[in-house]
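EI: anyone free to look at a 181-residue chain?
SC: sure, send it
EI:
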Amino acid sequence: MAARLTTSDRVRPPFFCARGRSACPSFSASKLKAKHKQQLSKFRKHAAAGKWARVHGDHFDWWVFPIEDGSQPAFNVYADDVAALQADGAWLEEYRAGVALVLRAWGWDVATVAPVAPLASGMGWTEWDVRLAKIIRSLWLFQEPQLLAAVQVRTPLLLLLLLLLLLVLTSPGPRRPSRGT
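SC: here you go
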């Protein structure tokens, strides 16, 4: 499946909030790299110990999956910030590793583009669609078509399950015929 890297009227264009700026004034590459390295170390420690549920419990989206409009301005990226991070080959490999580890914790292997089988204890979808959206947005901004495609293959099933759950939870129950019938 080819990654969808194009925009449409339903997807915010890249760096939509930049207001003509090519670098985010609040962004700190050194801070992001330090936090990313620290978080990846935690992910690897949890994975090695088989404690996958601990991956889900941390708060890390801002520095592991940087986007342009996150709630932590020091980690928001615009076009020049992304280009600088992409130019750092070591960081870029660690970025990809972070994506792979979080998806693995959800039970998805991005290398084989298939479910992890059997699932280890603590692995599985957490229903955190916001995190999934941030991962997809970040991969799109960083122009990572192979990883983006691997995540998007999994996404329709996850979103379908979320939509079905939403329908069940918001269903008003059986419809009663109106009095006129």
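EI: The chain has a mean pLDDT of 85.
SC: 👍
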